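#dry-run=false #mode=assembly
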Amino acid sequence: MPQRLTTHGKGLRGLALATLATISLALVLVFFYAPLDADQGFVQKIFYIHVPLAIVSLCGFVFGALLAAGYLRTGDRRWDMRSYVAIHMALIFGIAGLITGSIWAKASWGHWWVWNEPTLVSYLIVLLLFCTYQPLRFSIEDPERQSRYASVFSVVAGAFVPLNFIAVRLAQQYVHPRVLTLSGGHLPGSMQVTFLISLLGIALLYATLWKYEMAAKNARSQVRRLRRTLLGEDTMRPVGRSAAPS
Amino acid sequence: MSVLLASAPALPLGKSGKFVAAAYIVFVLVILIYVAIMAVRAQRLEGELTELQHDVEASRRGAARAAQPEPHAAQTESVL
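#status=ok
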């Protein structure tokens, strides 16, 4: 019986165009609409790229954990693939967030990194935790065990993200500004609109790249399946150990 | 766009401008590197597809050749 084809590429063009439009709009708003910050001046413009990157990366880790829970519930390896790509993308966004944050710290505080700042250190811990995800996968050869162990790791590490966030929020001493709160935050209207559009743009970029990588991985596995069906198992080139789900 | 640029206030691109530019360049670079890696992978996939196409055609030709009776054997049969 032929396996059902999954079409992750469907709607990708529309999503990519929406991402492009939103990020373009966000850039225009950042540089030509949002007022200069009274305290930090022009350097504060980094806020519109750094904070959305950090938020989207943390949400990406939680998204990966939810998808991994889907694998543990169903045993369907497609969920593992989705979780793998979600965490992989979140790591890329996280690294970009970390570098932009470091540049902002240097411009604003005079240091590339401040070790006694809970927000920075906790974010680094989360990022380093998820950096071990790929080596963990790579260390397990059996695909079934690889998927299962990686999914358990993703769920546990994903649950750590909101816990970590709450712990940092409850911390008393920090130099990191608190501009986003449940009561609306301390941003003026024009800055808030700009920030929300930037956040939407980065979230759409994450969704587009996730979908794009899923489509690419799906196409690759379909080519391999086709080769196996048409030419037999003996024509398959041996696949080396890989961190990515096959 | 030109109207927007004309009406926009001048950006204070002093010392702080360099940091802002660096942050946005990092973002663009990360995305560009990712897209380049994905482009290489897509190219590799395209190669695999072409290879598969050749293999399938070769396999079909081989099967068609095997299905045809050999001309020498057919002649011998007719003589007999």
